[in-house]
Fold:
Amino acid sequence: MADAPRSIPEIAAALRRRETTAVELSRVAIERAKADAHNAWLLVAEARALAQARLADERIAAGDAPLLCGVPWACKDIIGTKDVETTAGSRILDGYIPPYSATVVERLDAQGAVMIGKTNLDEFAMGSSNENSAFGPVKNPWDPKRVPGGSSGGSAVAVAAGQVAFGLGTDTGGSIRQPAALTGVVGMKPTYGRVSRYGVVAFASSLDQVGPFATTVEGAAIVCQALFGADPYDATTMPLAVDDLRAGLGAGVKGMRLGVPKEYFVEGMEPGVEKAVRDAIRVLERQGAVIVEVSLPSTDHALGVYYIVQPAEASANLARYDGVRFGLRVEGKDLEDTYRKTRGAGFGPEVKRRMILGTYALSSGYYDAYYKKAQKVRTVIKSEFDRVFEKVDALVTPTSPTVAFAIGAKTDDPLAMYLNDIFTLPVNIAGLPGISIPCGLSEGLPVGLQVIAGYFQEATMFRVAAAYEGATQHHRARPMPRAA
Structure:
């Protein structure tokens, strides 16, 4: 089965030609997930997957099946799944079984997609390397001694290793795009408000968005087509029509104005990464795009803004995990002692660090100095993007300043770890859509090109990404693992 189709369109075509069945594809995906050597999976939902696959085969035989029907996929374990354990990568949610599924899961269920299981992540999505999981780090299939990026590293690896056709992740500051770049797949974060967050374990509510990993830009667009749309259970979703996201994929970039922010090429970026990204920009220019240097002068403040707003929201959201209603409970001599012992045992060090930072930023006497000021600077960052998008159709930037780094290399230096998201988190601060696509290798490891578009302009973003993908072969590169 090594030659099994990998992309969503290829799988959909094979299913309709009766070259395979959803049950056969699901069994292969289940076998691969169980044999996974990267610690990408926390749970394989075999019975659920096979039941879904049998229903998918019936729909396909009846001739009334969406493109995603029968396609195997991986679900980040921060996304709630009815009757299937959801831990958010944390001991504090050990054994938690949601009574309902997240809206995004329900929408994929309605399409007939087959969920193979739940994937590993940084605890409560707090991390850039997938080393903060309570269940151990995920290993990069390109080199098992290196990280896959985080926090959605498990879903990225499941796609990169050919175990499933697509995966879902969440992106709060780059947690889809950064692991996509480091594992050589496509990873996309929609505009804030495009996709429902209902049923997703909340991390930082003004930043979180659900999005797909896929092997191709078209595959990511197909998944987004299923996910987009208003949800009465999530008041942040926008009541906008969902256009055909595949319609413009072949339109090319001739005549489009693409901005290159000068602040996104910084000291400390690896030379091989910069070369791959600048080569990618030249490919777009040769296709007829007009390349324009632009400036986003507040980019260097984005990291500070993010690490005030995000921990503050996290400290409020995670207050509910106290040993009373969900998951782990460690009995103490009284209620307060039970809270203390449960949270002390259940939360890992990175979660505790961010909760302390967030509580401090929101505390009396410091709220105005930190949280309120950060929100004002956030508005400035958003305004700078607004002005730039008056001049260009999209932005093209690096996704990450480095390729995948060694496991353990940055765990003792939180600031160095946080700097990995320097090019992705401004997109979340402003609420914009962004996508990372493979643009080559540096030192034998994948490099990602990021395309950013204006609010709710995902079709434009996909158009630019597809034009680059169609002109190169980088998305076809497969991991050639080095010795562990």
Remarks:
- The longest strand covers residues 434-442.
- The radius of gyration is 21 Å.
- The chain is about 35% helix and 15% strand.
- The chain has a mean pLDDT of 95.
